[in-house]
User: Fold this.
Amino acid sequence: MISFDIMSLIAVGGAALGACALAAICMLTISLRRLQRRYLALESSVGAMRRELEVVGSISLRTGRRVKRIEHDCAGVADRVELVELRGSAPSFDEAIDSARRGTDSGRLTQQYGLSRVEAELVTRLHGRKRTA
Assistant:
């Protein structure tokens, strides 16, 4: 029969405890390496997302500027449409052209036919009497 004294029992227990500690350290090392790889992958993904957000922000900024420019360009169109709608019952451009051919100046065309200053000047230049120097 094998007899174990207390010192042998403590030595076997210490060896078993040491083996368990070594196994735990190995498992922790493996887990730590996996976590490091995952961390690096996530860090890389965050960097890529940050770059994509910068691109999206840049596109958004340019789009906003374009929208503002289009709104600015169209603001005059709305006013112009309103003027044309208000002028609906006024005499037509054809009558203004006939009047310009008879020698009516642009100021009178503006008053009589409701044309804008630019329109009246254009009608006068295109259809008014030719002046000789």
Residues 6 and 12 are 10 Å apart (CA to CA). The chain has two domains: 1-79, 90-133.
